[in-house]
Design goal:
Helix content: under 10%
Number of helices: 0
Structural class: mainly beta
Distance between the termini: 18 Å
Strand content: over 45%
Largest sheet: 6 strands, antiparallel
Number of strands: 10
Order of helices and strands: EEEEEEEEEE
Length: 97
Amino acid sequence: MLNKRYFKTVPQCEVTFRVAPEGANEVALLTAANNWEPIPMQKLKSGEFKVRVRLPLAQRIEFRYLVDDSRWINDEAADSYVPNEHGSVNSVVDTTP
């Protein structure tokens, strides 16, 4: 799930990423916006994982989740999907207001 918040004073969009992969112990968000460096997600009592990230406005940013350092998943609520060079697809978040 993606929730977006726009700011009046800075050209950024704060995106809250939430995902609930069954049986996961840890999840990281990886995005093209930070050269695919893992961003650890917080595990909630509900079993969901969540992280907030500020991204530049008016961009279409590819991302994926890495579950337990072994399994890649996409976000079912992504704005769109694009093929990647590994033969699968990446999720996309659009930060255009």
